[in-house]
Design a protein that fits this description.
heterodimer, A: about 110 residues, mainly beta, 6-stranded mixed sheet, 5-stranded antiparallel sheet, B: about 110 residues, 7-stranded mixed sheet, 4-stranded antiparallel sheet, about 0% helix
């Protein structure tokens, strides 16, 4: 069975500050890991994904995440927050098959203070 | 890039009627499609997985007779909410997957049953 746990349902940072959204996974097989962003009443946009190549994954909009097997973590970071980063962020896990279902974490709402 | 079109984006229906939601992969053939449900301020919960030409696999607790899924071609899957009730009001999101494109999500359908 696979699962992800997102620590912190709500994170608030100042504009220009570091963004850190935490995700820990559980998987009995080598996982694929994803971070998605969702704006209100919209679908999901893929920020980045880990598929067993480089452990440090760079995504869109300046986000990156590092796969740490020893810590079973895949935290999302961005050096400098922008107001436009305010949204809901979901960490997700699946096994290495396009037919495998994606399991989502509970989500973290990111707020940006002016 | 891969695009998944989901229609309608929102729908209001009367209690007891049925509603059909379409999910199309526009520029690729999706071997597998997934249907998710999202309640306000919550994560995405997988409802079912469908493969072209075969019966959908429903997650535990999802009523297959209420949420009819048809995957008639490699580019189209439909979700029909039968005899809808107010508790079926939710945000429904589809996802299509294919080996080279990974997972692509539709923009979601906001269903309101009155």
């Amino acid at each position: 069975a696979q699962s992800v746990t997102q620590l912190g349902s709500h994170v608030s940072v100042s504009e220009g500050a570091l963004v850190l959204l935490r995700c820990n996974y559980s998987s009995s097989v080598p996982p694929y890991l994803f971070w998605y962003v969702q704006y209100p009443n919209q679908g999901l946009q893929l920020l980045l994904k880990y598929t067993s190549a480089a452990t440090l994954v760079k995504g869109i909009n300046g986000f990156e995440a590092e796969f740490k097997k020893s810590e079973t973590s895949f935290h999302l970071t961005k050096p400098s927050a922008h107001m436009s980063d305010a949204a809901e962020y979901f960490c997700a896990v699946t096994s290495r098959s396009s037919a495998s279902k994606i399991i989502f974490g509970s989500g973290t709402r990111l707020s940006i203070r002016p | 890039g891969a695009v998944v079109s989901q229609h309608p984006s929102w729908v209001i229906c009367k209690s007891g009627t049925s509603v059909k939601i379409e999910c199309r992969s526009l520029d690729f053939q999706a071997t597998t499609m997934f249907w998710y449900r999202q309640f306000p301020k919550q994560s995405l919960m997988l409802m079912a997985t469908s493969n072209e030409g075969s019966k959908a696999t429903y997650e535990q607790g999802v009523e297959k007779d209420k949420f009819l899924i048809n995957h008639a071609s490699l580019t189209l899957s439909t979700l029909t909410v039968t005899s809808a009730h107010p508790e079926d009001s939710s945000f429904y999101i589809c996802s299509a997957s294919e080996e080279s494109h990974g997972y692509t999500f539709g923009s979601g359908t906001r269903l309101t049953v009155v």
